[in-house]
Design a protein that fits this description.
By secondary structure, this protein is α+β, with helices and mostly antiparallel strands. It has helices at residues 3-58, 64-67, 73-80, 111-117, 157-196, 200-204, 222-261, 263-276, 282-312, 326-336, 338-343, 361-379, 434-444, 471-476; strands at residues 86-91, 97-100, 122-128, 131-142, 145-155, 322-325, 347-351, 356-359, 383-390, 394-401, 448-454, 458-466. Strand 11 (448-454) and strand 12 (458-466) form a beta hairpin.
Length: 477
């Protein structure tokens, strides 16, 4: 078999495999997107129906027990399903369906109801007599317990029809593309073989596929121009690929760091919002609202900073040092972290006087939040001791916990950069970015961060700040 025929056959097989893969991917993606869209729609309906049901109970029209009784549940299900294309059912804590908006088969499969009664929404697809139905079940919580739930049954016949039309359209288009591709492939192979004989020996020297290899052709015709263009292109591609990898690495490290910082203000907002529901005094509620607004503003500023960074194409951290009271910053940070510390049952003590050093308040607070958050999440401690010491040219914060500590051989891994994260300890609760980020921020402020730990003896983190304006910050600004 000649080279032309081999190229034609290879191209034909590739086109067929590619079209088959595209068909499978398109069919799967479309079906998945439709199911996800329908599930999201039912989830939104559940949110609205839940509010409506709780409003009925809140207005004391009926009690919660009556809501999931055989007397009222059918009427409520019919009311909620009005002007919709799905069936609504209400089920009780004993998995009994107490009300349905339709007299159709209730579908005996109840795995979704069991999952919902365990506190999680559940979506399943059942098939009976060639008909597919999407079932979405979600629990209703009332006064801290599950009192029942809503169940939605959506007929997927329309989705099946859409998929069938897509398959017919795709098959027709694929056949047309295959015929045109094969004709073009045969013509191109016949045309290409004539000049390619001159390049055959040269191509053997670059068969390894290395971009640094050169094709040497001495002819001055189009083949010579092609070889020269290929050499320039391979060199340019190699250079740009190296630059691209370098820039992607820097950008990824920056965005890893900034997204990691979103956790602390969000945690504080959630913590204070949970405290509000437990407070009686208006002064306490106002104080919580004040911190929620403060942390929300901080989060908004971080998002705006990220947007500006993206627009400018500059991934560097910006440090704005000023003379600030280190003791006041510690006190404010502990107030913000108060809900999180209280939830984790961790007590704190602070020792030392107030004094001023040069620092960026926002960045320093990020460092403190990261260190305290690490202690809460990983040290299993019950107490944090914070001590401030003033020296002639510097100020020091020492944060000590009474947790489980870290093995000495594991300490260097805590400060590895983002691109080496496979060597660091990463859990589902942490991406291991905190300490490298803290160290970077401290160095940009002209300070330093050190960490020492012993298994069973706890961990000590020391932050050193300068009383002189840092040179790095002056150069950066």
């Amino acid at each position: 078999m000649g080279l032309r025929n081999k190229m034609f056959l290879q191209h034909a097989v590739t086109i067929v495999l590619l079209l088959a893969a595209m068909y499978i991917v398109a069919n799967y993606t479309l079906n998945k997107s439709m199911i996800e869209r329908d599930t999201q729609t039912l989830s939104q309906y559940f949110a609205l129906h839940r509010i409506e049901a709780l409003k009925i109970v809140g207005d004391k029209k009926i009690s919660m027990n009556q809501l999931f009784s055989g007397t009222y549940a059918p009427f409520i299900a019919s009311h909620l399903a009005a002007n919709s294309n799905f069936q609504v059912q209400l089920f009780a804590p004993d998995e009994t369906i107490v009300g349905s908006s339709s007299d159709k088969d209730n579908l005996l499969k109840r795995d979704d109801i069991k999952a919902a009664l365990q506190g999680q929404s559940a979506a399943v697809i059942t098939e009976r007599e060639g008909m597919q139905t999407l079932i979405y079940s979600a629990p209703i919580w009332y006064e801290g317990k599950i009192v029942g739930g809503f169940r939605y049954l959506l007929d997927l016949s329309q989705n099946v029809e859409t998929l069938n039309r897509m398959r017919i359209w795709f098959t027709g288009a694929a056949v047309g593309c295959l015929i045109l591709s094969l004709l073009a492939s045969y013509s191109f192979a016949s045309f290409l073989m004539r000049p390619l004989h001159a390049l055959q020996r040269a191509l053997k020297r670059v068969s390894v596929g290395d971009f640094s290899s050169k094709i040497e052709v001495n002819t001055k015709d189009e083949i010579g121009e092609l070889a020269d263009s290929f050499n320039r292109m391979s060199h340019a591609l190699q250079h740009h690929i190296e630059l691209l990898h370098y820039e992607q690495g820097k950008q990824k490290a920056f965005y890893d760091n900034i997204t990691h910082e979103f956790k602390t203000p969000l945690t504080s907002v959630i913590g204070f919002s949970e405290l509000i529901s437990k407070m009686q005094r208006i002064e306490d509620i106002q104080e919580c609202n004040q911190y929620i607004r403060k942390e929300s503003s901080r989060l908004l500023n971080m998002v705006e900073e990220l947007l500006q960074t993206s627009l400018k194409g500059d991934e560097a951290w910006r440090i704005r040092p000023e003379k600030a009271d280190l003791g006041a910053l510690i006190a404010d940070s502990l107030r913000i972290m108060k809900p999180t510390l209280a939830k984790s049952m961790i007590s704190t003590t602070v020792k030392g006087s107030h004094f001023e050093v040069y620092l960026d308040p926002k960045r320093t607070q990020q460092v403190l939040f990261n260190i305290i958050d690490n202690a809460i999440r990983h040290s299993e401690c019950t107490h944090l001791h914070i001590e401030l010491k003033e020296q002639e040219r510097s100020g020091t914060i020492t944060i000590t916990d009474n947790g489980k500590g870290v093995l000495e051989q594991d300490l260097p891994k805590l400060f590895l950069p983002s691109e080496e994260k496979q060597d660091r300890v990463i859990s589902k609760e942490s991406h291991g970015l905190g300490l490298p980020l803290c160290k970077q921020l401290m160095e940009l402020q002209g300070g330093e961060l050190t960490l020492s730990s012993r298994p069973g003896k706890g961990t000590e983190v020391q932050l050193v700040f300068s009383k002189d304006l840092p040179m790095k910050a002056l150069l950066q600004n």
